[in-house]
Every structure is written in structure tokens, then in C-alpha cells.
Amino acid sequence: MFRCLDVGSTWTKGALVAEDGTLLAVAQHRTTPPEVLDGVAAVTEALPGEAEVLACSSAGGGLRLAVVGHERLVSAEAGYRVALSAGAKVVHVSAGPLSNVYALRAARPDVVLLVGGTDGGDEKVLLHNASRLAKARIAVPVVLAGNKQVQDAALESLRGRTVVATDNVLPDVGELAPGPARAAIREVFLAHVIGGKGLSRGPRFRRMVGAVTPDAVLSGVSTLAAQEDGAVLVVDVGGATTDVYSSVSTVDNRSAVALPPDRRTVEGDIGMRVSAPGVVAEAVTERLLPPDTDLAAKAAHRNENVDLVPSTDEEHEADLRIARLAATLAIRRHLGMVGQLGPKGATVLVLSGGVFRHAASLTGVEKALRADLGPVLREARIVVDREGRLGPAGLLALAGHIAPAAALLAALS
């Protein structure tokens, strides 16, 4: 058996999965900082039996990534798109010779991805930026993934800092190689960030965690896409943010840098509670709602009462309306940033988040989403991840247990 754990900022969730991929049980407990292992123990007690433990975490705010690159349309864009597939929230992107370290510092990144130049190409900007980072009071780890010809010189400039050097994300013009940088970002986060967020007093939690939660979910999305003849789209609507994941085999991309097949974007101003007024305001701008919508007052009430739990039919209906709009707006932004999903659009849309999981019916939401997103969902099945299968399936896949991961996700079809 496998015990799959997700230690989040608010909740610690667990799933007990049989070796054939059958979901045996699920449990959750409030995350318990400053010792998150207390919450882990509570979930483990609810999922008894001998099992291999696989764990991911986004506690402490997840992975905040800054990208420092050469020019926005090439190196910086390449680094940004690598971050889309690394389970990271990109909080800062700079292009060209780094001068404004104040903006970088203000973004409070956990990791800096330093890129620049194709192999054998421009050297000056990467070396300048390495030197500037070394002199700046930015003590976070650096993943160096730029021009291989000057990697040793850049490492020398960064001596004394925590640096992981890996292959260039852009070895040649138009050739994106995200795998090594993605692995290095994960390594740095797990080795130097998880242990430094004050989540646990000893090393056991650090040793337990094998992935960043969004990276695990993205792995689950990719596993699901491998079973589909087309693209998978997932939208996870939370109280403060909305995450969108997509996985495709091929993409018609006209930019200089090709997209990785698995992508994630985070919308920090779109959500069910804190960010609800922003959802309504943008929906009005996008003409998804009339300017005099009655939903504005309901969204403001949720912003002021973030712990609100709907208890009436009217409150449930307002939540579903906000959730549908949040999903539409977040998916539109995602596609605008990472490109389209191919000529057929999505073959399956997975809805995630408590508002969808606990809804008695989503018929109205599905109808509205198809109207709002048009061709993107023309041929898509719309399903709900009611039991939170994507994250556990991703953990299984990352650990090499592909067959049970695929079987676990078959129930979503």
C-alpha cells in the first residue's frame, strides 16, 4: 500500500492507495505549525496499516521563484516557462543586466533561477547578473542554468552562496530543455527551503517530503494526459488563489521558445473569499457580468468573512457563480500565457477545490463554462476530482509507480 500525504498551509491531507491503484481511504487534519508532524501523525492514524509513505508540501507559502535572464523574449521567457512546469509561483522576472535588486528582494523569492545566453552565445549579461547577485543582499539559493561556456566563471562569482548548476535551459535558439532546471529547482526547494521555513523542529519532515505540492499535482495531470487522446486542463479554485494546470503532447507555438508539455499558472487575485471582489470586477470588465450585478455585494461579504461556510441555498448558489467566473478567468489567463491546447482544445476539464467537490449539482456550472470558454471545451468531458486523486497519483508517478497512478486516475473518466 501507499500512504500519500500533502502537507499544506491550512490542511494536511492523506490518501491510502492499494498497489493496484484502488483508493482505500482519505483523511485530513488541520496543519499544525510550528510542528507539522503533529498533523501528519493525526492523518496517519486515520489511515492505518503498513504502507510506503510519499509526501509533498506547500506549507509555508509553497515555492516562490524569481527568474533573472538575458532578454525577455528569449532567456527570461525560457526561464519563466521552465518555472511553469516546476511547481513554482513566479514572483519576479527581470531581463537584461540586473540593476534593480530592490524589486527582486521585495518579491521575497525562495529560489532565483539565473539564465542567459545560448551555449557559446552571449556571455556578458549572465556574468554581470551573477556578479550582481553575489553582491546583493539576497541570500536565497540560486539555480544556474545559462550559457555552459561561462558556467565556471559564474560559479566563481557566486562563491559563498548556495548554487546548483545545471544544463542550459536554452542550449540553442528555439530549443528549450526544461528537464534539468526543473529537477534542480525541486532539489533546491526540498534541500534548502522546506527545512528553513520553521515547519518542524527536526529533520524528519524534510526527509519525508519528496515534492512540492503543485509539482506533484502537475505530475498527476501529466499521468492523466497520457491516457487521453489530446489535452488535459485542470482548474483548482481556492479561497485566495486559483491554480490552472494543463498537459499536452504537442502545441502549435509561434514564439522563439517552445512550451514544456506540462504547465501551471497561479492567479493570486482570483479566489472564493479574499479575492472574490476581484473576480467580480474582472468578470464585469470581460462582460461576463452586467455592471450592476448583485454578485458584487455577495463577493464583498465573502472578502470580509473569509471563514464563511455556506448554509443556505442562496449562499451555495453565490459560491458556485463566483467559482465558475474564477475558473473562466483563470483559464483564459492561463491560455493567454502558455498558448492554446491544440486544434481540439481540451479533451477533459477537471474541476478541483472544495466549492466543486461539495456541490450537489454542477449542471449549471458546466453549461456556463462551455459558454464562457467556447472552443476550448467543445469536445471536453467535465469531471470533478471529488476525492483529491490528482496529487496522490502524481506522488505515485514521481516515485515510479506508474500503473497504480494511472489506475487511481481512471475513476475520473
Task: List its salient traits.
Nucleotidyltransferase, domain 5; Rossmann fold; 413 residues; single chain; 20% strand; five-stranded parallel beta sheet; alpha/beta
Protein model, in words:
- With 413 residues, the protein is α/β, with parallel strands linked by helices.
- It has 3 domains: 77 residues, Nucleotidyltransferase, domain 5 (2-Layer Sandwich); 130 residues, Response regulator (Rossmann fold, 3-Layer(aba) Sandwich), CATH 3.40.50.2300; 196 residues, 2-Layer Sandwich (Nucleotidyltransferase, domain 5), CATH 3.30.420.
- It has 15 helices and 15 strands.
- A 5-stranded mixed β-sheet has the order 3-2-1-4-10, sandwiched between helices. The chain has a 5-stranded parallel β-sheet with strand order 6-5-7-8-9, sandwiched between helices.
- A hairpin with a 4-residue loop joins β11 and β12.
- α4 packs parallel to α5, α9 runs antiparallel to α10 and α11 packs parallel to α13.
- The protein is globular and about 65 Å long.
